[in-house]
Structure formats: structure tokens, C-alpha cells
From TrEMBL:
InterPro entries: Cellulose/chitin-bd_N (IPR004302)
Signal peptide stretch: 1-17
Protein name, entry field: Chitin-binding type-4 domain-containing protein
Superkingdom as given in the UniProt entry: Eukaryota
Key words of the record: Signal
Domain Chitin-binding type-4: 18-203
Length: 206
């Protein structure tokens, strides 16, 4: 019986998903800090660390991934979707270099980027990639942060550059984590279709 439980627990660990944006807190993870941000709810269809394009491996254009990480064709995590409570989780200044913290619960190598939709009304085409000034586990091309090694879990930081002159009462910061799963020789970058995660975060820029 104990053995069976252990196997069950190991199985859970394997399917335990993989990460979320911790600070500022992602739209689908707001329920984690009810004292700070009351009124949110836990996603019903997956764990909030598994907002992963419905586990459909994505190409370099993320062709079928939902705007904010939904399974293909779904819109729950989008602005106006069921997890959008209009809660702003970070307030910054235009042109600021902001520290964004991501928590990995099951790191699958690869790397991640940040984009900003610099307008109040989010859509599929408004996202612009941001520069990353530095990151705990390394940066490529000034805009791609390496996620670290397999099972290198926990919090990791990236310093992300907000554009000068862009202000909004609400705009969307998007994290896209392109794993290296299936694994590629390059631990930071899998060019083939690969398991991908996405989170949207509602921020304000003064
Ligand atoms: C990409 O996929 C092809 C075909 O499956 C495979 O031969 C190749 O090794 C893969 N490349 C990487 C970097 O994983």
C-alpha cells in the first residue's frame, strides 16, 4: 500500500506542471494571493502552473497557442475571459527596467520571453517583444532568458525593459516559456515544436 502510494505520488510529480509568473502575478494565478488581490478564482481546467497551450507543442510562431496560454481555440485566460477580474498586479513607470520573477515548479529547460501589449484593449496582434537586460540564468540576443537546467525549480528573475513613453492604465505583459521538451542539445532553445507555456499579466504603466 505504501509502495502504491509512492508510485502514485511519483506519477503526480511527473504530471505536475511547470511554472507561472510570480511577480507581477499572472492573471491566471491571482487566486494565490487573496489577501493582496481579493476576488479571483482558481482556474477550473488546469493547474495555474500549467497554462500550456493545452499541451499542444508549439512552433516558433506559437501558431495554435491561445493568446494567454489557452488550449487552441479557447479564450478563458484572455482579457475579457473568465479569469480576467480587471485586477492590476504591478504598477510601473514608463521606461523602467522592471524585475519580473517567474516560479518554476518543473523546469523543462528552454527559455522565455516577455512581450507588452501597450494598449488597454488586448488583441492578438498588439504584443511587442521587450528587451531583457539581465536574467539569473542567462540571456540570449538581449530578449531571451534561459530557464535553467532540468528540475532547476523555484524563483528566477529577469530584468525587463519597458519602452520609454508607453503609458497605460492597464496593459498586458505576456510571458511565453518555450521549453526544451522534447529535449534539444541547446538547453536554452528548442527550434522544433515544443511544449510551451504562456501567462498574461495585467499591469499599469505611469
Ligand atoms: C528536430 O526534429 C527533427 C525531426 O524529428 C530531429 O531529427 C532533430 O534532431 C530535432 N532537432 C532538435 C534540435 O531537437
Amino acid at each position: 500500500m505504501k509502495f502504491a502510494l509512492l508510485i502514485f505520488a511519483a506519477g503526480l510529480a511527473l504530471v505536475e506542471p511547470h511554472g507561472y509568473v510570480h511577480t507581477p502575478l499572472s492573471r491566471t494565478s491571482i487566486f494565490r494571493r487573496p489577501n493582496e488581490f481579493p476576488g479571483a478564482q482558481q482556474p477550473f481546467w488546469w493547474d495555474d502552473t500549467g497554462v500550456w497551450c493545452g499541451n499542444v507543442q508549439q512552433n516558433q510562431q506559437y501558431s495554435t497557442c491561445g493568446r494567454c496560454g489557452d488550449a487552441p481555440g479557447n479564450t478563458h485566460a484572455n482579457q475579457g475571459g473568465r479569469y480576467d477580474k480587471g485586477i492590476i498586479t504591478g504598477t510601473y513607470n514608463a521606461g523602467q527596467a522592471i524585475t519580473v520573477t517567474v516560479e518554476f515548479t518543473a523546469n523543462h529547460r528552454g527559455g522565455f520571453m516577455f512581450e507588452l501589449c501597450p494598449q488597454v484593449s488586448e488583441n492578438n496582434n498588439c504584443f511587442q517583444r521587450l528587451n531583457i537586460n539581465s536574467a539569473d540564468r542567462g540571456v540570449r540576443d538581449n530578449n531571451w532568458a534561459c530557464s535553467g537546467g532540468d528540475h532547476q525549480n523555484g524563483l528566477t528573475r529577469a530584468v525587463v525593459q519597458l519602452p520609454a513613453g508607453v503609458r497605460c492604465t492597464r496593459c498586458t505583459l505576456r510571458w511565453t516559456y518555450r521549453t526544451s521538451y522534447p529535449p534539444a542539445p541547446d538547453a536554452c532553445w528548442q527550434p522544433n515544436n515544443t511544449q510551451t507555456f504562456r501567462n498574461c499579466v495585467d499591469i499599469r504603466i505611469n
